[in-house]
Amino acid sequence: MSGAERTWGGASKVYTTRYETYKRITDSENPHKFSRLIDAFHAAAAVGIRLRAVPDTGGTEKREELVNVYSIDPDGVLWAVMSAIHPEASGAERFEKLMIYADQGIERLEEGFTIYGNLQMALDALLG
Amino acid sequence: MRIKKLELSNFRPYFGSVRVDFSTNEKSPVCLIHGLNGYGKTSLLLALNWCLYGHEKMKDAYEYFNINARSERNATMAVQIVFENKGHELTVLRRIACSKPVNSVRDLGAMELAFYEDGKKRQTMDPQVIQELINELLPPEASQFSFFDGEKIEMYSSDGASEATQTAIASVLGLTLLNRAQEDLDKYAIEVNKTRRRLLEHEEKGRDLAAEIQMLENNIQEALRQKNAIEEKCSELQLQENKLQDQLVMQESAQSLMADIGKLQEKIDLAEKNRAELAEEIKESTKTLYLEILKPILSDQLVEARRNRDVLMNLHVSSVRDEALAELFRKIEKEGSCICGRPADGQHLEALRRVLNPADLEPGSELAGNGLDDARLIVSQLEAALALCHENGSYAEFAARLADLENDIDEWATSLSAKKSQLGISDQEAIVSLTEELDRVQKEKAQAEREAGSLEKTISDFQADRKKLENRIKQLSGQIQGLDLLTAQVDILNRGSQAFGEIVRRSAVAKQNEIQDASTAFFQKITNKAFAYERMIINPDFSFGVETNTGARPPMQLISAGEKQVTALSFILGLNEYTRRQAPIFMDTPMGRLDETHRRNVARVLAEMANRGRQIILLVTDTDIAFGVDEILKPVIGANFDIVHDQTSLTSRLVRRQS
Known about the structure:
The complex is a heterodimer.
Chain A: E1 13-16, H1 19-24, H2 37-51, E2 64-68, H3 77-85, H4 91-116, H5 119-127
Chain B: E1 2-11, E2 14-21, E3 30-34, H1 41-53, H2 58-64, E4 76-85, E5 88-97, E6 111-117, E7 120-121, H3 127-137, H4 140-143, E8 147-149, H5 162-172, H6 176-287, H7 289-335, H8 346-356, H9 365-391, H10 395-422, H11 428-479, H12 483-526, E9 533-538, E10 544-548, H13 561-579, E11 585-588, H14 596-611, E12 616-620, H15 629-633, E13 637-646, E14 651-656
Parallel strand pairs in B: 3-12, 3-13, 8-11, 11-12
Antiparallel strand pairs in B: 1-2, 1-4, 4-5, 5-6, 6-7, 9-10, 13-14
Helix pairs in contact in B: 5-6, 5-12, 6-10, 6-11, 6-12, 7-9, 12-13
């Protein structure tokens, strides 16, 4: 890392290989699901970071546009934690890792949600 | 037997004490007492009878009490008769002594009766014993033919006088006891019959009461039937009431259930509202959920970042010092003198190097200076991120609340569903209808119970009445137990009376010929038609009649009043003769309706009786001794008395004429 810049390597969109999963776990009318995609992304990324999850498929799956990059980290929290755990990585690398974390996290969340019926219990089960 | 003396005290017109001495010589036993009408002749006859036999009624004694003496205190009415009988002097005294003025019968004192024999008083407390002595001396049935009112003897010869005649004959025949027994039997039969009639009335009353009881019994049975019907109705109404109350309870339970459902629904609605609010809050909290997830890793990374920063900071400080020392050595070497003032020779420089060790200066110190800024940035970003985590991070709480709330909602919804399934058909109209019906049934039942109570009381009253009537019948039954006996008694008494009457009648019939003969003897002497009349007849029915020389018996209706008096007088004298008692004859106005011839004939008969020693006391008016009567009697008259009457004081006294 060089220089104190909060950037994601110039990316503009967040892509995901689990777009359908995001759609299933997002419902603005259901308080047990996420009401917005961005909220689902944040939680999925956080779960992935906590679990230090790595992709199984090696990133060959088809990615779909999920949200805009400018909306994902208004307070710099994700940047701070990604910078802390990946100090040597560049902004673009960190962003790539972040999307991978999110894809893995959303997968795990849906699994827990399917089992427990609500997010909190799924989180409790995932993060112990 | 003769009357020697008569003493009156305050008797009728005789005020005070009046004494009469009837003593005469043996051959002149006739005493005449002269007095005008109203002077007190009959009072002497009454005094005689009262003294000897008294009167049952005290009212008579009150009327006899002299009117002047009544106003006196301690006045006494008394009559005393002195008899001479078989050489003994017998005195009868009857008197009433009063302690206060006599204004009514109640003011009279007790009646006293005394009997003296030769001046010696018979000691007895029982007046009945005295009366028996008097009756023995002169029986009352015989006295009526000795002491009589000439004007009243016509009762024997008047129409329908057979009973008096029969009684008179019975009296002289000594059948008075039978007569009295018959009278007593009649009286007793009447009394018994009265009792019997009363008992018959009781029996009738008993039958009426029995009928009344039967009626009451019918009423009781009817009332009981009604009461049973009403009680049955009460039972039915009770069943209806129970059923309605059960229904109402069910309806009210349903109402309660509905209320519970309403409350549950309200809770559920409120919870749903809270859930919606909570859902909004959760929506907000999911925006910062990732902060809660990242919070542990942020904390760990902050510690690590701070350590890296500090390492880099130390590296940077060492680098700066080493650079400064190197610069100082270069300056000391260049100037050749140390900063301490000594020459900067080789030895001194070597010593400085050993102390300051400038060889430690690392080439990487510049890198350390470059990484320090990044480390500082990361630390500050991590600190800011953690601060955000602390500010937010309520998703777990909201989720827990939501879960609890949804559990509650589920539980309530389950309960609501259960209650709704319990709830049958229920509505307020049904409850109102049931309540009205229950009210109607309860009122009807209360009315029926009141009617039953009223009937109960009526039955109780009927039963009490029946008990009273039964007691009354019991009493009556006890009273009428002797009814048959009384009926038998009445029958026996009537038959006894009839038997006695028959005995008297037959005895009288048996003796009536002898009495008829004795009477005929006087009749033939007294009648002025001796030439025509053969004899005096006493008919089988004891009525009088006369039989002519031709055997004819003219009806008594055709006989004159004077002749009837003659037959009666003849009958009296005949009976008197028949008794052979020789009691004194005390006659009040004996001549009455008789004509001159009859009067003289009577005088002759009396003189004849006097000649035979019979004492005769005649109460006469002037007319009684006119027409030669006094001349006929003169030889046998022993004493004459005048009744002197004071018209002012209405009192009388007796004065003996001087011969």
